[in-house]
């Protein structure tokens, strides 16, 4: 399967809510078939608005979205039938049983009944034993599992997960990620929003960062980390220093740990990292090392840096 084929095309998408609040500003985004795309952003960035528009729950104010070629406004039914959405909030009828909830959901999308498929779905989500329980009798975690089953009941090609692991326990979180991987292996395209950067780092093929209604970037996870990641050289000293040695003045070196560690931050992309020069300069000054390690900045640091920069640019404008 080609991973570069676009399955969802978003162009110039804008949203102004009735209150006059502009939640999205001309977003362009191409989602590739079969990928896991993580949308990261702080609270109120516009992540839910973006996915709600693609899923046909919120009307766009401007721009265009197609899902597998179908326009989400003109060909609403066809576009929507390709999508499963696991929303942030519980939306089930509490008086229905688990089984009724999933069969109804499948039927709503015009799919013929398929007991075997729904049974395997409920088994995968550890819900089979609960199939005859009413929704109101389930724990919060179980209700979440039902939301996932409901989203998958019509065998969608694309699955949206809106903050799927916010407030869920470790077990459900693990199950959820296992399920996401299995679905990806079956060719399902997965878009998830999250505040948990570690999750994006672990799961996603590509990462989009949204801030204040703008998509700041979409990039392959590995490329993002390589391009924006700073590396650090951590030098533990034999003897603590009271001040930075003159030979390293003007370099991006800091003295930490009560003077017992020097940290040199450099651009991992650069051909000339300056590591050799730095170590030679220190040696010339008679500074002895106990240990030297290097580390790569985490996605979290990259993300915080990006959002910080974009907020600063805005306040200057
Ligand atoms: N129906 C609405 N009417 C007016 N403003 C809204 C409406 N829904 C969302 N907003 C505003 O739009 C902005 C984006 O909200 P959205 O829910 O898309 O953000 P988010 O990135 O998903 O945030 P979170 O991570 O907190 O879920 C917020 O400032 C929110 O208050």
UniProtKB/TrEMBL annotation:
MF GO annotations: ATP binding; ATP hydrolysis activity
SMART domains, alphabetized: AAA (SM00382)
Keyword Nuclease in annotation: no
Keyword line: ATP-binding, Nucleotide-binding, Transport
InterPro entries: AAA+_ATPase, ABC_transporter-like_ATP-bd, ABC_transporter-like_CS, ABC_transporter_ATP-binding, P-loop_NTPase
Keyword check for Acyltransferase: no
Record-annotated ABC transporter domain positions: 8-237
UniProt name for this protein: ABC-2 type transport system ATP-binding protein
UniProt source species: Halopseudomonas bauzanensis
């Amino acid at each position: 399967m080609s991973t570069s084929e676009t399955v969802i095309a978003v162009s110039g998408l804008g949203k102004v809510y009735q209150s006059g609040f502009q939640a999205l500003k001309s977003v362009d985004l191409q989602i590739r078939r079969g990928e896991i795309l993580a949308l990261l952003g702080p609270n109120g960035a516009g992540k839910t608005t973006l996915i709600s528009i693609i899923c046909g729950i919120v009307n766009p104010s401007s721009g265009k979205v197609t899902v597998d070629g179908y326009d989400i406004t003109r060909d609403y039914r066809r576009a929507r039938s390709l999508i499963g959405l696991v929303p942030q909030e519980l939306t089930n009828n509490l008086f229905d049983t688990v089984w009724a909830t999933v069969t109804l959901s499948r039927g709503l999308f015009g799919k013929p009944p398929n007991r075997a498929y729904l049974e395997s779905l409920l088994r995968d989500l550890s819900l089979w034993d609960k199939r005859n329980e009413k929704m109101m009798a389930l724990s919060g975690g179980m209700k979440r599992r039902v939301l996932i089953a409901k989203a998958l009941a019509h065998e969608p090609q694309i699955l949206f997960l809106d903050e799927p692991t916010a407030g869920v326990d470790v077990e459900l979180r693990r199950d959820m990620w296992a399920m996401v991987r299995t679905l990806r292996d079956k060719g399902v395209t997965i878009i998830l929003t999250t505040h948990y950067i570690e999750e994006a780092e672990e799961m996603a093929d590509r990462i989009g960062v949204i801030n204040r209604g703008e998509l700041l970037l979409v990039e392959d996870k590995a490329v993002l980390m390589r391009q924006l990641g700073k590396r650090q050289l951590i030098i533990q000293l034999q003897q603590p220093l009271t001040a930075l040695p003159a030979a390293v003045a003007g370099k991006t070196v800091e003295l930490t740990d009560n003077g017992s560690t020097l940290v040199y931050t450099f651009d991992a992309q650069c051909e000339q990292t300056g590591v050799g020069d730095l170590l030679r300069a220190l040696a010339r000054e008679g500074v002895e090392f106990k240990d030297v390690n290097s580390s790569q900045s985490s996605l979290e640091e990259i993300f915080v840096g990006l959002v910080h920069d974009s907020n600063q640019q805005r306040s200057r404008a």
